[in-house]
Amino acid sequence: MPAILAIESSCDETSAAVCVDGKILSNYIANQTVHEQYGGVVPELASRAHMQNIVPVVDAAMKTANIELSTIDAIAFTQAPGLIGSLLVGGQFAKSLALSLNKPLIAVHHMQAHVLANLINDPKPSFPFLCLTVSGGHTQIVLCDSPTSMKVIGETIDDAAGEAFDKSAKILGLPYPGGPLIDKYAKEGDPKRFKFPEPKIEGLNFSFSGLKTSILYFLQNAGKSNLFKAEFTATEEEKKEFIENNLADICASIQYRIVTILLNKLKKASLETGIKDICIAGGVSANSGLRTAFEETGKELGWNTFIPAFEYCTDNAGMIAITGYYKYLEGKFAELTVSSTARAEW
Ligand code: KG4
Ligand code: ZN
Fold first, then answer.
1. Which residue has a Cα nearest atom 2 of ligand 1?
2. Which domains does the chain possess?
3. How far is the first Cα of the chain from the last one, in angstroms, to the nearest whole number?
4. Ligand 1, atom 14: closest residue by C-alpha
5. Which position among 79, 169, 177, 224 has the lowest Cβ density within 10 Å, counted as fewest Cβ atoms?
6. pTM above 0.85, yes or no
7. 284 C-alpha to center of ligand 2: Å?
8. Of residues 204 and 231, which shows the higher confidence score?
């Protein structure tokens, strides 16, 4: 019955969770609103906010789980990848706790944890399964053979899907992070009204940088042309008016394109590997258009589809805790000298 305390601090969410025998008893997340005014995460401010949040967040997670620090069997933490200053705060905290409690330390790969968020609730996928991991920094198709053995079989060659959402939103004048807002406005819009082009990328890799360019040209034409290249030069006023009058349809059309790019590659991966247990994970898996289209595609193609509960999609320590649990079972512990790194091998 191992009890794991887990800490996540890779980007702008400070989170702590407690997992006992593979069940998540608590999962606390402190969001950092300080970045909104800057239109993106400011690393220095993120580190400082983690320093302020980490003790109360860990305290809250322990209280909700109704467990004492003395009964914890191991401390798991996000070791990589992420913002180095942010990772260091959680990493040092976890190490100090492990040292003072004399308990083992478990280093967790943030992207592997996003994949394993699918093992938190029932029903769970069977091994081997495929996972489309889509977040603000990553877009990957992962082949997962066991909780501690997985490999990336496709990934973005430029922007991540979350970045594509956020950059598109920024062009439309929406605040950061714009992904959830595009999702919100898209619900009222016609996804087929504006046909943004699909990039032609070989194999299982993705590309999203062309989408940003086509949106810029599209707005430059302000509805006077349906072609996604520069034909007119609308004034800022004209662009603004066009966006205001067509926001729902523009958001729905952008979302439709991002979702079809993702699902077309996932279909290809399933066909090539013969695997039909398929998951999605990461912040963008909170997108309602992606969730619906994923379920529909699954029904059509006979997949067993899995999506983590909403609170385990965006960054959270619950997914670090479940990964820590499986590593604990295999005795995969880290030395106290382990260092946090911004990038990580799989
Ligand atoms: O996994 P995550 O919380 O953090 C990273 O590790 O990056 O993902 C954050 C990303 C952001 O780009 C955010 O805009 C996007 O997930 N996101 C969404 C939605 N909710 C979060 N994108 C589209 N629709 C949503 N509902
Ligand atoms: Zn993440």
1. 283
2. 3-118+311-329 (3.30.420.40), 124-307 (3.30.420.40)
3. 28
4. 179
5. 224
6. yes
7. 9
8. 204
Residues 38/83, Cβ–Cβ less than 8 Å: no
pLDDT number for residue 111? 96
For residue 160, which atom of ligand 1 is closest to its CA?
12
Which of these, 314, 318, 308, 309, lies nearest to 280 by C-alpha position?
A: 308
Long-range contacts (CB closer than 8 Å, 24 or more residues apart) made by 18-23: 18/61, 18/62, 18/64, 18/65, 18/67, 18/72, 18/321, 19/318, 19/321, 19/322, 19/324, 19/325, 20/65, 20/67, 21/325, 22/119, 22/322, 22/325
Rg (CA), the chain: 21
pLDDT single digits (tens) 169-215: 999 999 988 999 999 999 999 999 999 999 999 999 999 999 999 99
Per-residue pLDDT at 257: 98
**For residues 30 and 13, is the Cβ–Cβ distance under 8 A?**
yes
User: Does any ligand 1 atom lie closer than 6 A to the CB of residue 286?
Assistant: yes
Give the pair of three-digit tokens for residue 41.
Answer: 């995460």
- The confidence band for 34, taking pLDDT boundaries of 50, 70 and 90, is confident
